[in-house]
């Protein structure tokens, strides 16, 4: 469909891929005769692959347990345990601070490890998941990149996350890919394709940018792209390559992929600030913590009821006077406080598109002032409506910039995730801007955790050829082309 498409052929309602929960007891006691998707009756029990996604973000720290049915390729949630990152304890005497969050919460290896350990243990206990017998793999990720001097230094934080996992009792073998079929538990051996294809760095048939790290939260973009693909299995949307993903956490992450086969290339990366824009405005109410206070502290169902939406849109346009969205200039070392390497990106054929407030957040105080004015003059309902319009306008401007840079291929799908992209009326407002550019726009909760489950499967060659997640829209599984490609190498 053309860029401007036929609007009359589209549904005005956003498409959501919501998380589906399952109990640990259910995945352990599956009936031997059941109906499977597209397969009729089966005498084999369902086999589930259980993964823990350990995420340290600027606002929240999470452990999300997922279970993937290796027949249907559908991924379920077992538990979601969330803590506020601002509650990480202050550094103790003698501890080395190696970075900080976007809200200047200082981090040490010891304090991060303790937070991660406690979050994991709480989640495992709530879900009744035994580390040795039930848990198959752990994937660690972070969106905390603002306080680092260079993209490479995020490695120190990943090490701290690993230390927290070890302290929680996670064995190292459950954090690294298996080397052969024999390394898998007996129940998983028939599902791995490790004897046919190896993990070569491509996650859900998308290669990362080649060469040096181009943006500090690159892994986050990789995971959310994979997660939106996994979540789309619950919908009728074929969210495969070419596609565009946007993650509206505190910081902005996401990717633009092309339509190459068997592996698509990452031809665009998003970076900078996202939910931090809304958080800054909400601090103007003086009803949240000045050190790490977030919009989600005040958000509740019905908060936008009774809002003046016309006024909210005007306020959002005022806020955007301080928001800079565009292609990251080659000379910048940070954009939206996030460390970037534009030269390496452009040498690799990847376009960086960023979102900032002023330059590296130096205009955030102006947003705080604006938030105070909105709250005083129009109240909390219109203030939250303003946040919805702000996020929608960010998406609009990112889309327009990407099309102006000619990095979105025709026929692409858009996927949006993250608290500042899917709550309130944001999906409806975003759809108003996106529907003329994309065949479909999909809104996903918990995409990063779903992506962690998918990455674990890719690293261990646990594919589902009958229900492929990778490849191109309308296409078949790429197992055959992968085997040919790797044989040539």
Describe the structure in brief:
Helices cover 31% and strands 20% of the residues.
Explain what this protein looks like in three dimensions.
By secondary structure, this protein is α/β, with parallel strands linked by helices. The chain is 31% helix and 20% strand. Strand 13 (255-257) and strand 14 form a beta hairpin. Helix 4 (218-231) packs across helix 11 and helix 8 runs parallel beside helix 10. Residues 4-10 have low confidence and may be disordered.
Helix content: 25-40%
On the 0 to 100 scale, the average pLDDT is 91
Adjacency order of strands in the biggest sheet: 1-20-19-11-12
Would you tell me the structural class of the helices and strands?
alpha/beta
Biggest pleated-sheet summary: 5 strands, mixed
Task: Give the strand content.
Answer: 15-25%
Within CATH, the superfamily of the domain at 218-448 carries the name ATPase, nucleotide binding domain
CATH architecture assignment of the domain at 218-448: 2-Layer Sandwich
Give a count of the beta strands, DSSP E runs of length 2 or more. Answer: 20
Report the radius of gyration as a whole number of Å. Answer: 22 Å
CATH topology-level fold name of the domain at 218-448: Nucleotidyltransferase, domain 5
Q: Please identify the top-level CATH class of the domain at 218-448.
A: Alpha Beta
Q: How far do the termini sit from each other?
A: 37 Å
User: What general outline do the C-alpha atoms trace?
Assistant: globular
The low-confidence runs, each spanning 5 or more residues with pLDDT under 50, are 4-10
